[in-house]
Amino acid sequence: MITLGVILLLVGLLLDVPSIVITIGIILIIVGLILNLVPIGGTRRRVF
């Protein structure tokens, strides 16, 4: 998700397309970073 955000950000900046592509790229980068930093799912180890 982070790589897709970076690709959209670069395409938006290099090809001078409307700013919606740049905005979507920034949002994807932020969401990807949050999902990588926050442990979701079965990442906790239970000790019995």
Key words describing this protein structure:
48 residues, mainly alpha, 2 helices, elongated, transmembrane
Description:
Keywords: Membrane, Transmembrane, Transmembrane helix. With 48 residues, the chain is mainly α. 69% of the residues lie in helices and 0% in strands. The protein has one domain. The chain has 2 helices and no strands. It is elongated. The mean pLDDT is 79.
How would you summarize this macromolecular structure in one to three sentences?
The chain is mainly alpha-helical and 48 residues long.
How much helix is in the residues?
55-70%
Query: What percent strand?
Result: under 5%
Number of domains: 1
What is the SS-derived class?
mainly alpha
Transmembrane segments: 6-38
Keywords: Membrane, Transmembrane, Transmembrane helix
Indicate the topology.
Blueprint: H1 2-15, H2 19-37
Helix pairs in contact: 1-2
